Amino acid sequence: MGDSLGRTEKGKPMRAMTRLAVTVFLVAVISSFTVVSAQGGEPTRLKFIAWNFQVETVKEFLAQFEGENPDVKVEMEVIPSAQFAAKVQLMKNSNTPFDALYVFDHILSQWASWLEPLDNYEGTDALKASMLPLARQSMTYKGKLYGLPYYTSYFGMVYNDKMMKAAGIAAPPRTYDEWAQQAKTIKGKNLSKAPLIWPVKHTGWGGMWVMNTMVASRGGKLLDEALNTSPEALASLKWWAGTYRDGLSDANGIELDPNESARAFMSGDYYTLLTANFFAGAQWANDKDKSKVAGAAHLAATPEQHKTVGFARMYGINGASPRKEAAWRLVKFLGATNKRGDYVTPKQWVEKGALTWGLRGIEKDSSVAASLRSWGADPAQVAANLENAVHMSEVVPFQSVWYAEWELYANGVLQNVLGGRLTPEEGVQQWSKRAKDLAARYK
Amino acid sequence: MPIRVGRRRGSGLPLRLLNLPALVLTLGFSVIPILYVAYLSLRDLRLGATSAGGFAGWDNYRFILADSSVATAFWNTLYFSVLSVAIATIVGLAIALLLDSDAPGAGWLVLGAVLPWAVPEIVNALMWQWIYNPTYGALNGLLVSLGLLDAYRAWLSTPVSALHAVIFAYAWKLVPFVIIILYAALRSIPAELYESAQTDGAGFWAVVRFVTLPLIAPAVVVAVLFCVVWSMRAFDIVYLLTRGGPGEATTVLSYFVFLKAFEFGDLGAAAAVACVLAAITFAMTCVYLRVLPKGTESR
Prior knowledge:
The complex is a heterodimer of chains A (about 450) and B (about 300).
Chain A: H1 11-40, E1 44-51, H2 55-68, E2 72-79, H3 81-93, E3 100-104, H4 108-111, H5 124-130, H6 133-139, E4 140-141, E5 144-145, E6 148-160, H7 161-166, H8 176-188, E7 196-197, H9 207-217, H10 231-245, H11 258-266, E8 272-276, E9 297-300, E10 308-317, H12 324-335, H13 344-353, H14 366-374, H15 379-388, E11 389-391, H16 403-418, H17 424-441
Helix pairs in contact in A: 9-10, 10-17, 13-14, 16-17
Chain B: H1 12-18, H2 20-40, H3 59-66, H4 68-100, H5 106-118, H6 121-131, H7 138-145, H8 159-187, H9 191-199, H10 204-232, H11 236-241, H12 253-263, H13 267-291
Helix pairs in contact in B: 2-13, 3-13, 4-5, 4-8, 4-10, 5-8, 8-10, 10-13, 12-13
């Protein structure tokens, strides 16, 4: 079929091809102009909100990010961690602009309404597949992912290898009975007045974190769906109270927070400390300048089923940010990989902060393995413990709006049980009743 | 010719206008916030919620009245207040009497006694934190070296010792105020009254009982009432020393309000507790105004 000028259909594809080629050429020229103007013009400016842990290290990371992304500049605002949640909430309520930020997992349920879900960003599916269960659970709320991991931490047993060997004990305990027996042996040989020290202060990572670890290590939940306490909870509480009754745990330590209990352990007067894994690091128990157990403080798995609880800190994006694409690049760089696919910051955090990772495989890096070994940890065991760790929400209703209030109350009850002012049975009853009262109040 | 100072007809409005800045400040920083807190106490409002909470009526008040933690905080506050004020008053009175006796070195004693008043609350709390420390605390060191204690104790680890440790630390800060008030009152007593009493054969205790105490009673009332109102609102010492623990042993109402509002995010319930605390403090102030000697208010 031909047109009125007798030209055949054959000419049309040719002209179409020519038009296409011209269009592609023009698009390419315009695009290159756009890129040039973007590169030559004002860079995208991101505001990043962080708390005050190793600020200089974070600044180094941001400089590395800017080096890799010359079109983005990052301004960091540092808030003391104790005021972080309240200050960020005030900033949000007053519509103060910011783009990316640190997020606590315990605050995620309150902030999910304004944080940006990351599920649909490029590369998220692959990152999710490599995330540890602990990291994924910590950063997910109602099925949506709200962060990439800054670090994860699990509760593990730090033990004094020197004291253990002096007592003729071959290996750290694998059951709770064995743990108590070892403590009795050490006390019997006058190697320690009270071999066990715990962070039991009623605020912060207090006693209930240890309690939840013990319950998880027995394979149970502390509160079930109906908010009744489990047999594992009662068994754990009875065992723990027994160590105080028998003088195996230091009664003077009942008001120690995690930092103070770690310092007490560093005095060399104790056999074990159940706490967040980074307290075994080179900045704490294995600090050659400050710790009397440096080189002898080793990290072991929890007894019984070796399960434990943990938590994650994450990088998130403000849902109201108009610069989400650049913010995503920053969050991906900090929480996962750079453009070459290298885990830049997660690796360095192991060395610089004894902070463990949220994405599998990082322990295989030679520098990471060397850092872990330097503080008496077996990289494979740390990786296994991280794999075995579950988020607190698997043991207690951690993401309920009333959880923080319950935990503070539960810590007080715990102190009363450990101090002999309540029986373990009364303690678990009070935990359950309080949980039910609060759930009814905030339903 | 004496200058006449009196109100002239028509000068009332300009003079009242001079009160305007004070009125605005009072409204802005006292009246409106109080009313706003009262309003919040009637709403179901969570910190971090994206929308304003609904009207809750008296639900927040019903909740806090049924909450055992509020009851504990109330009794802790009452005990804390009564004991700290009692300690401060007795010790303060004793020191004021000593100062008034013109004993040698009394001038220096005034300086030493008043010093704690100049110490900021936060410094005071940190200082007592060190004193009570279970590992290197000065109190343990003193008691062990005197043979009164065989081993160091964790004073803030048991409910009874923690509460009394906090009370003592707070009372220490109150004492200078009591001294200042009572010492001033003692100095205003005419020397002739003491001379007359001594002429009549009164001994030291009789002079104190029948001359000194009746004459400084109004000052004692003022000091006690101020101290009670302050101690009902004590926060810093609890926050820094014990965070309300162990358990809820040292949780007082003002600290409970902080927890409820900023740790647990329940602004409605926190506002309700704050209103109850404000009502108690207001009642104390009314008592103060009632028992204050007539004429004092208008000076």
